Protein: LLM class flavin-dependent oxidoreductase
Amino acid sequence: MKLGITMPSRTTDLRRIPQYAQWADEAGLDTVWSWELAKDPISQLATSSMVTQRIGLGTGLAVASNRTAASMANHAIDIDELSGGRMHLGLGPGLIPNAKPLTYMREYMDVIRLNWQYIATGEAPAYDGEFHSFKQPRYEVFERRAMVRPSIPIYLGAIGPKMLEMVGAKADGWIGSLSTPAYIEERVRPLVEQGAESAGRSMNEVDMLVQRFCIVSDDEDVAFDRARKQIGFYLLAKYSDAPAKFVGLHDEVVDLRERARTEGAAAYANISDELVRTFSIVGTPDQARAQVKEWEGVVDHLVLHIPYVPPLSAEESEDSYVNAVATFSRTGRSPLQPA
Structure:
């Protein structure tokens, strides 16, 4: 199982991001991921690519509706060139016009790949979709360029049944969140497999990746306090209903939402230890390592998702990141140790 980590950038000085990526690289982790928040994930990977040697670099997620397919395709090529072929393009829909995210994302992936095909070969068929289109340029406004790879793996953030089927049919990987091993085996994997089978593909062609909240501290109480804030924020979103119902904790989620209307973030303090453990890797380093082992054989790729939401501070997020890298270092190198 590959092991990755997300870089908490919400309140962090962007000049810290390359250092975060370098720590993960030196610790022997497989991938490091940036997020589309108030800050651009592409620029974070660009700076990270210059100070890392071998670690995969991914957007987890970049919002499709914020950029044209041609722009996203070119951004991905840039990172792939800067990093020597280490880019992973993770996409999410964002605010999709006319409430047709399935059509929008299907066309978006198609047109990205047509752009890559044209850039790599000089030839690609025309494409005329409802939201996105592609035509070979009449004039070479921009010169074609060499690509490190003819194509870059596209990961799709998917929750609903139809989007999960499309992962199997068209994407190179799935990015999931708020999942448990049983939920993936019973609710996610069958739909991805169904989509793959419909397209004549093998599941070996789909990297099953889950981002799991990871909060590690030598002080177990500190870890649980940070975890409650991170998980509480995410459980306010309606997409958490399905996994919460699956594990029998939906009533607690509904109660949390009611409390949050009047108490705000203070409501997170009432989240039970059971709910925290269900949706996160949390506790001391030894406890966290034991929890990660539970994911072996469930997914291909586990990404440690570091807390970043308000009311957590930049210092708390960085401390959580440093602790996670130190806990899961495969090389003996740790941000907690001098070089």
User: Anything to note?
Assistant: The mean pLDDT is 95.
